[in-house]
């Protein structure tokens, strides 16, 4: 399609058009950051970036859609909910700069999938091994609650990301019910055969989807989201999250030993 026919960044059709045109994960990550398709989310993310939290008053917020993070040949994808207002929306990196990010990173580090146990800033040197982090919604939503319409408008970004990861992707860990409800239609639309009835979300729920064309299998695991509320009430603990990630990585793991020799 001629670029002159491309919908503008503020159009609901923008994610679908731009995502389909991306041939690499890097192209997709760049395209995501230009999106203005959801007016409520655009207003909120920019308002937060302007007013800022007192603890970060001297920082310049990202204030844009937050792309996925991790290698383009990942075997494991972790799908969350949306960037945090003063986390990813501030730092510009998924699961970075907030307690949820540090909780997840501590678990990934324990399993040998991250180079360090914290995720503080986009330039903190963090590296992920064999795992990529993404979300169904790429803008910080008010009260951490995207609407179903916002989820559906943003869906092409996640769909294309998983399509680009497909040659290497073997497992998906979904953090929370919102991500679960968003992911399953994406997999079905991409041709993955899902169990019937479709499994309901729950911590530790696991199923295998398969491609009827080439027989390839994709394992999907559910895990409670490491939100501050869930971690403070012990709904999800670090050992619980580590256990899910260990199962996702498999007995051989996804990468070699950690640089510190502990993995």
Automatic annotation (TrEMBL):
Which keywords does this Swiss-Prot/TrEMBL entry list?
A: 4Fe-4S, DNA damage, DNA repair, Hydrolase, Iron, Iron-sulfur, Metal-binding
Q: Name one Pfam family in it.
A: UDG
Q: Which residues form the signal peptide?
A: none
Q: Name one GO molecular function term.
A: DNA-deoxyinosine glycosylase activity
Q: Does the keyword tRNA processing apply?
A: no
GO terms in the biological process aspect are: base-excision repair
The family database entries (Gene3D superfamilies) matched by this protein are listed as: Uracil-DNA glycosylase-like domain
- Which SUPFAM superfamilies does its entry note? Uracil-DNA glycosylase-like
Q: Organism's domain of life?
A: Bacteria
UniProt keyword Glycoprotein present: no
- Describe the location of the Uracil-DNA glycosylase-like domain by residue ranges: 67-245
Question: What InterPro entries does UniProt report for this protein, alphabetically?
Answer: UDG_Type-4/5 (IPR051536), UdgB-like (IPR044147), Uracil-DNA_glycosylase-like (IPR005122), Uracil-DNA_glycosylase-like_sf (IPR036895)
PANTHER family on file: TYPE-5 URACIL-DNA GLYCOSYLASE
Report the sequence similarity comment from the record: Belongs to the uracil-DNA glycosylase (UDG) superfamily. Type 5 (UDGb) family.
What's this protein's name?
A: Type-5 uracil-DNA glycosylase
